[in-house]
Amino acid sequence: MHLKKILIVFVFMICSALAQVNDTTYSLTTELGLGYSRYFTTMDYSDLNKNGFSGTLRVMWNPEHLLSIGLESGYQYLYSINVKNYDTEFGTTDFSASMYTVPIFIVLAMKVTPNIKLTAGSGMYLLFNAGNMFGDEIKSNQISIGLHTGINYTVPINNSISLGGELLYSYFSKMQDQTVAIQFLFVYDLFRY
Amino acid sequence: MKTIIILCASLLLIYSCNNEVDITNPVVDPSNFLSETTPLPLDSKKVMEGVYNVTEGNNLLGDQVVVKWTRDRLSIFSGKNGGYIILDGGSLDSVLFFLGYWRYATNTETGVVNFYISSGEGGKKILNGDTTATDIVFTGVYGNGKESANKTIKLQYKRPFSQAVRNGNFYILAHRGGGRNSDYLGVSENSIEMINIAERFGSTGIEIDARLSKDGVPFIYHDSDINLRLTQKSLIWGNIEDFTWPQIRSLITLRNGEKIPKLLEVLSFVLHKTELRAVWLDTKDVDVLPAEIELQKAIMDTAMTMGRDLKIAVGIPADDILQAFLNYPGHENILSLCELSIDNVRQANSEIWAPRWTQGTQNSEVQQMHTEGRMAFVWTLDEPSYIEEFINESEFDGILSNYPTIVSYYHYIK
Q1: Considering CB atoms only, which of A8, A90, A175 is closest to B233?
Q2: Domain A2-192 has what CATH class?
Q3: Contacts of B234 in chain A (CB under 8 A)
Q4: Do A90 and B234 touch (CB under 8 A)?
Q5: Which CATH number applies to B166-412?
Q6: Cys-Cys with B350: which of A11, A117, B109, B338 at CB 3.0–4.6 Å?
């Protein structure tokens, strides 16, 4: 369902961008986002910590069109859990597990006003699992296809720096779970041509 | 205009994707009526088996069906949409009662079905174990989905199974322990619960997928990773063989709520709780091979002391596994099943050759295998028309299918 909504936004943005031209110079910008992430899952563990750090780093190419395109990576905390005296058929154990992800995405962004941009991205999430159970380390990783969409608001501070904020929704197809992140955004123009 | 067309086409594509399936499981015997009946004796069960004409209710089952007792249920297999009926039964006075459900194997249609066999229409003869009973009539009603049973259905005894079927040693092998998750059977593939019902689908053997945990415990699971096709959401993700057995067992739950079983549990269950005659161990990773062979030997030794006819074949599906098998001391004497070439079968001295069905009936190769005292199974055959063709035109000793009910129908009407 979420996948469908994101794809609709994606298609809408592409079609709108194709239809509009804006007379500006080309530029390459880097966008650093740092903030808080909340994980949404149907997993039923009362001790599950779903709040954590979110960070994104994008390099965007901005042509004369309203639509810009770029690459994104970063870090997003998903969950962690620590359970004392966890009962299993093998006996009682202390148990911990956590998951974070590193996205490798292609991102499209479209200016809807001079300060507001809609973003949508797709690619893969590298999922990293860690923890401990019965004294044995839990360590594994996996790749998930994913999507995200967001909205950001930035204000120029000078010719090359803008500051603002971003609300980002992400979907992980492997787990069919989502996160919502709110981030402080730092945008720096690497160069214009 | 072009943009609008692209947009509309994209939206249509997006909304055409819907993988949610709603299957309504019928409620069988809500009043617990069968608890008031007496279980049927073994001699009676054999009397009922055979091919029956469908004289009413052809919409559901077509023109003829196979009636076959499995370990604990009466199964009816039809040629229409791979339809089958699973029934529990008992007698009250000299009337036989059966309650259960029907299902089409090739889609998700299902419903409740009830039968009785009156005293004068074979009930009394069946209970007496009279093997000359040829006037058996099943009279019943069935419903669709959640509706109550209200449509008439009647089965009239036509003939016993042919001599070839009765004297043959054909193997009907169920994929992934009995069936796949994608067929919505109510239990998960590669679970003890699935194996427990595999015989109701007519299976006389099963194929299961063996893997090895990080700490060296062989278990059964198909895919290399933890995923929602096979499991419920869990706290751990990744390559399943990266985890220890206590972690796998404690933290992962299969799709329908079962726990992942150890290979030892599965083989013990097959030996002690079922009448299955064959287990095809699909070796998913080369590392599991030694542990698989040790367990195979232990369980087959026990089976032999019990006088139980049970073949457990170590699967050789790929070249790396063949190489590891050939390096295993005494491999010539290990019961194995090789999916590779005939030369590889001879090299490994495999008792069973198992080619893919797409290679055709290969009758001359199968005959060669028979001449050498080997058997030949074909996999994984699901299309009803091909199942019929392989049953009637090939000389294979067994068929592996996701739809053993369809294989059963075409085999028993032969």
Answers
A1: A175
A2: mainly beta
A3: 43
A4: no
A5: 3.20.20.190
A6: B338
